[in-house]
């Protein structure tokens, strides 16, 4: 099967709304997801979730691993659970076929060989700031990042990105592309009305984005509400 046919098969697999919901849940969750959790997330039975999850594996969109969720080993520890995670790689289809990836690799190679990393980062920062200032742009940086192809999730007080929109190119030119990515996000935060309290830094995930974000205003799971003006800080559990 050609790469184009494989991509088309993957798109067909996502035609079912339950399947799309399961894919979004698994791909947007850091780590692996079990059948029970996936079924609960989309509101279907475990058996139906298992059927659709395995169809997504057949289409090359998800991968399977087996692990004991109890963390125990040896006799009496139970059978390993079947878990799912997003498959590495990308599926893109264009009709008629296009080769934008070839052009992007050539451009990245020229920029890297010419030592134009700084110029690329400056351009990315300016483009990010301009897009953050566009009329109608959401003020919440989390939602803006999600709309731009990232999959943000909270890791205690840090906002991490579960995927890299430039994954294929970053594998070949990591320093160049990751530097561009960080600069672009920094510019985006600067341009957003709600981005002034945020900061971005390089802190790569093993299978995710190289950039993490933090905010002076504590948000996300486990964050304490901000104290009212003039009121003493609360130390109560959220």
TrEMBL record:
Spell out the residue ranges making up region: Disordered: 72-96, 217-238
Residue stretches of biased makeup (Low complexity):
220-238
Q: What is this protein called?
A: Helix-turn-helix domain-containing protein
CDD domains with a match to the protein in the record: HTH_ARSR
InterPro entries tied to this protein:
ArsR-like_HTH
Record's superkingdom? Bacteria
Q: Which organism is it from?
A: Streptomyces poriferorum
